[in-house]
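Before relying on records like the one below, remember that each one covers exactly one chain. Contacts with other chains, cofactors or solvent are not represented anywhere in the record.
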Amino acid sequence: MSKKRALIFDDHLLMRDTLKTLLTNEGFTVSICANGREGLEIAKKSAFGIFLLDYRMPDMNGDEVAVVLRTLYPEAIIVGFSIECREREFLKAGADKYIDKGQLDERLIQYLNERTS
């Protein structure tokens, strides 16, 4: 598991690209996926230390993905995000942190740098 290696789960291309750029500029290695099932397949093939999960996605919601990831990677950092308040669902599913989608750019890097340094 690599602490500075992240996988972003989001079905919106613009959001995936924005987060990827944000993290890459901070020294993270980033992969992206458009839905839960695709992301779980990618996660099983590589060593990620960070998973960023949107709540609403086709086929699996982010909290469902978080349950699987927490089981497979108990030491990984899992951050859930959504435009609607889904903190309770994410934390119950095993996420370490929930961040409102509107505040991701302000709070995500700070949180990840605290956890990975």
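The longest strand covers residues 2-9.
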